[in-house]
Amino acid sequence: MSERLAGRIALVTGSTSGIGKGVALGFAREGAKVVVTGRREELGRRTVAEIKAEGGEAAFCRADIALKEDVLALSRFVGDTYGGLDVLVNNAAPAARARAEDGSLADSSEDLWDDLYNTNLRGACLVSKYVMPFLIKSGRGSVINIASIHALRGTGWDAYSMIKGSIVALTRSMAVGYSGDHVRVNCVCPGLVRIERNVDLEQEGASFAKTLRRHLTPPGQPEHIAHFCTYLASDESEYVTGSIFSIDGGANAKWGE
C-alpha cells in the first residue's frame, strides 16, 4: 500500500460489484476512506467487510441514485459519516441489462432507455449536484465519470452508446464549469472488463471471439480501471481535467476488424 490517497474521502456509486467494487477496493488500499453505495445491501456490506479485512476504512449507504430522495440521504450520510468528500466516482449503470437487451433503437424498448437514462445519466447528475458543495470545500475535488468505449465507437448498442456519449459530453462541460472551484472532472472509458456479469462470455462462441478481436490484450480486470482512477483521484493528476481516457486494451485503436 503506497497511501497515494491518504487523507482523502471517496464516494463510488455502483460499488457493490464489478468495476465500482474494484475501484472502491483500490482506493481503500491507497489509504482513502470510501463510501460504498448501490441498491444491493448485502453485496454492499460485503464490499465494506472486504475493505475492512484488508485494514481499510469504508461505510455503506444503500441508495438508488435515480431517486432524488435517496441521493439526498446519501449526501447526508457522507457528511455525517466523514464530514466531507474529495473524490466522486460516477460509476453506477445497468450495463448488464444493456448488454442483454440493447441493439438498434427500433428493436430496443423505451423502458430500457428510461432505465439507462435514470440510473446512469440522471443518477450521475443528481449525485454530482448534491455532493458538489463537499468537493468544492475540499479544495482538491476530483470527479471521475465512468463511460465506455461504446461512447467513442459505433457498436450497435444505440441506447447505451447514447447515454455513455452523454457522460463524455457532461464531463467536458463540468470540467469547464467547476474549474474555478478547484474541482477536476475527467472520464474513463473502459473496454471489455471481466466482472461478475460477463464471466459467461466465453459461452457465446463466435460473438465473444469477435469482441476479443477488437482488443489488443486479453480482457481487463476491475483493478486495471481502479489503478487509473487512483491516478485521477490523486495529486499526481492535478494538471488533468476535462479529459477522456480509453482504458480498453487497445480496442479504441483497433476497432475495425
Describe this structure in words.
The chain is α/β, with parallel strands linked by helices and 257 residues long. It has a single domain (9-245), classed as 3-Layer(aba) Sandwich (Rossmann fold), CATH 3.40.50.720. Helix content is 45%, strand content 15%. The protein is built from eight helices and seven strands, in the order βαβαβαβααβαβααβ. It has a seven-stranded parallel sheet with strand order 3-2-1-4-5-6-7, with helices on both faces. Strand 5, helix 6 and strand 6 (183-190) form a beta-alpha-beta unit. Helix 1 (18-29) crosses helix 8. The chain is globular, with a radius of gyration of 17 Å.
Keywords:
seven-stranded parallel sheet; 257 residues; alpha/beta; 7 strands; Rossmann fold; 45% helix
Quick overview:
The chain is α/β, with parallel strands linked by helices and 257 residues long.
- Based on Cα principal axes, name the global outline: globular
Output the radius of gyration. 17 Å
What is the level 1 CATH name?
A: Alpha Beta
Query: How many structural domains are formed by the residues?
Result: 1
- Poorly predicted sequence stretches spanning 5 or more consecutive residues: 204-208
Strand content: 15-25%
Helix content: 40-55%
CATH architecture assignment name: 3-Layer(aba) Sandwich
What is the assigned CATH homologous superfamily?
Answer: NAD(P)-binding Rossmann-like Domain
CATH topology: Rossmann fold
Side-by-side strand order of the widest sheet: 3-2-1-4-5-6-7
Number of helices: 8
